[in-house]
Amino acid sequence: MKTARWRKILGWIGLYALWIALTLFTVLPIYWMFVVSSRSRVQLFDAPTLLIRSFYIQNYTGPLSDPVFQRYLLNSLYIAVGNALLVTVLALFATYALSRWRLPGADNIFFWTITNRMAPPAAFLLPLFLLYTQVFRIGNWTLFDTQIGLILLYCVFNLPFAIWLMKGIMDGIPVEIDEAAMVDGASQWTVLWRVIVPLAAPGLAITFILSLIFAWNEYLFAATLTSVNARTITTGLAEFVTVTGTNWGQMAAVATISILPALIFLVFVQRYIVTGLTFGAVKE
Amino acid sequence: MRSNRLGWLLLSPSLIVLFIVGFLPFLYVIWVGFHDWNIFAATRGMTWAGANNYRRLVFDQDFLAALWRTLVFTFTVVTSELVLGFVLAQTLTRQFPGRAFFRTIYVLPLVVAPIAVGATWRLMVIPGFGPIPYFLERWFGIQYRIGTYAEHAWATAVLMDIWHWTPFVTLTLLAGLSAIPREPLEQAMVDGANRWQVFRYITIPMMMPVILTVVFIRIMDALRVVDEVYMLTNGGPGTATTLIGLHIFRVVFPKTDYGYGSAMSLLVLYVTIVMCWLLFVALANVGKQKA
Amino acid sequence: MTETKPIQAPVEHKGRRGFLPIETNTFDRVFISVVIWIGASLLWMRFIEPLGLSVWICTILCIILGVWIVKKG
Fold it and tell me: Are B223 and A153 a contacting pair at CB < 8 A?
């Protein structure tokens, strides 16, 4: 009896020790980045401590008052919000169609959408760069280095994920509700906006937030398909290392700013992030 | 009562967008891959080259080494994450005070931008002020230099990927574990099976679809890692951590040798497609056995 | 409520069982043939073409193999 009880207590201690250690391991790199962002260049090369004794605010005010960096930040905001809106609306239409009509070949189309998400972006850099600079052009205007170009492009990975996520939510709304509204004389359009959208609102919000985070986080395409006007904060972060390689404090500050939106939304989406990342295959 | 036309009308915007930015580049890269095209060469335009780009590609040591490195990297991280994730998911199946808190913190790496992940880990391991080299040297006398030693850079890249993605694997497997019905497990215990037997002959087979789904998503994401490693080591020292995506992004792209670059992109796509397809077949077969 | 369904091609395979170890429909068999053809061509260019045998031999062999797979696989 006694040994069994001891074993149980040891089990609990082990469990907590494991999870406290894991939490520290998870938080440490991000915390360290914050610590670095609080130090001046001279303080950095003292013996490392994890304590924040003073805050070197210039690391933040420096980039934030730089017009170039301000533009990067605004671009990121426009592109992420624009893409998230576009993706949510398109996915709403698409999944409503997929779930309410029996369109011939729809299953294959549904499946085809996800193959877009699987494609390695590195393999698409070159063709997209060529298409954006040479092929998609009207006179002198090309999609290269425009915000709309990136907004459209991010649909490649956000739209499939949104469609897969929303499909499950749409299928969960009974058709009888539509039909009842239609009997009352509502048009298809009214049903979609007045009945379906309110019912699917939580799902739409999750889709919107996750798309926003993914679009905000993207680096590779933003780095290759823009040059001056449409650069985003993630490319700005990468530029820090190459251009002013030694100013680690400012780089850490920019990195901290770049993960802020994700941190803010984390509380709302943490229950759904796994669902989102597995394309709705795993629901909690 | 509902005409199909409205259905197609609602579906078409998504299809058009995906066609333009997803499918069209795919066709285009096939087309360019069979041409010589270098805007700094004398000819400038595209000239038909047949399979010459591919002939050059199969003898390209840098490319093949990068491809092999990517496969090794993918295998290493996916296996480690799967084993770690399974163990951690098991500990989370019980309710305990603080579980929700640990969970929330644990999800954190999943939402951080990959490029920022690279930045944080670079700050962790910079010789001079990063805590990892400092404490390793002070406590164990190990010189940890990711800019000098290939193994150190590689280990850091693997550790970073594990830090980034184990939470995802854990939580997905946890969802799978919670969905397993209790009765078969209890029945087996009553019949005198030990823990290992239950795990081996009941838990694993019932978890197979979830495991394969996780492996599938992780493989396809690990094959395309670029941002983190670019930020962490820039592929170095030498080419020690130049994964295939980084090779295309850093080495091929600036050279403006478009035909050759397209051939390379296509071969990467080919490898990805074959691996995904094999996993799909496995998934479909497991699904069929269950039904 | 936890629910998991693995990612799968949503279409029930209305395929048949040939000499290949899995049930396949025509599209699958064409796909398999193309995958084999590309892989074989690349290996051929690496190892056999330097010996003097043209890659067209490989293509012909693969087309024959492909026809066989599509018909009997």
Answer: no
Does B237 sit behind a cis peptide bond, omega within 30 degrees of 0 on the bond before it?
A: yes
Q: In whole angstroms, give the CA distance from residue B81 to residue A205.
A: 30
HSE-up of B265 (CA within 13 Å, CB side)?
A: 31
The answer, for C42 touching chain B at a CB cutoff of 8 Å, is: yes
Q: Domain range for residue A41?
A: 1-56
Q: Is A283 on the interface with C (CB under 8 A)?
A: yes
Span A178-225, pLDDT tens digits: 888 888 887 888 888 888 898 888 889 888 998 998 899 999 888 888
Contacts across the A-C interface (CB distance below 8 Å): 23
Answer whether residue B75 shows pLDDT above 90. Answer: yes
Task: Give the list of residues 6+ apart from residue B125 with CB closer than 8 angstroms, or none.
Answer: B132, B133, B144, B146, B156, B232
Mean pLDDT of A77-85: 94
pLDDT at C1: 38
Instruction: Report chain C's mean pLDDT, rounded to a whole number.
Output: 77
Listed in sequence order, the DSSP H helices in chain B are: 4-18, 24-33, 52-57, 61-92, 99-111, 114-125, 131-135, 150-179, 182-190, 195-198, 204-222, 227-232, 244-246, 258-290
CATH value at residue A101: 1.10.3720.10
Hey, where are the domains in chain B? Answer: 60-290
Examine the domain organization and report whether A52 and A67 are in the same domain.
Answer: no
pLDDT score, position A77:
92
Nearest to C3 among B179, B217, B273 (CB): B179
At A283 the pLDDT is: 63
From the list A108, A278, A279, the residue facing C11 with the nearest CB is A108
Residues of C in contact with B286 (CB under 8 A): 6
Neighbouring chains of A at 3+ CB pairs under 8 Å are B, C
* ipTM score for this prediction: 0.85
DSSP sequence for C42-64: HHIIIIIGGGT--HHHHHHHHHH
What is the Cα–Cα distance from B124 to B136, expressed in whole angstroms?
12
Q: Is residue A80 part of a domain?
A: yes
Tell me: the pLDDT tens digits for A153-178?
899 888 988 888 888 888 888 888 88
Please tell me the distance in Å from C16's CA to the nearest CA on chain B: 14
Tell whether A94 and A146 lie within a shared domain.
yes
Contacts of A111 in chain C (CB under 8 A): 9-11
pLDDT recorded at residue B165:
92
Which pLDDT tens digit goes with each residue over C10-31? 444 566 677 777 777 777 788 8
C54 CA: distance to closest CA in chain B (Å): 12
Q: C38: distance to nearest CA of chain A, Å?
A: 17
Q: What is the domain partition of chain C in residue ranges?
A: 32-72
Q: Is C4's CB within 8 Å of A108's CB?
A: no
Q: Which CATH number fits domain B60-290: 3.10.180.10, 1.10.3720.10, 1.10.443.10, 3.40.50.720?
A: 1.10.3720.10
Residues 83-142 of A with CB under 8 A from C: 107-108, 110-111, 114
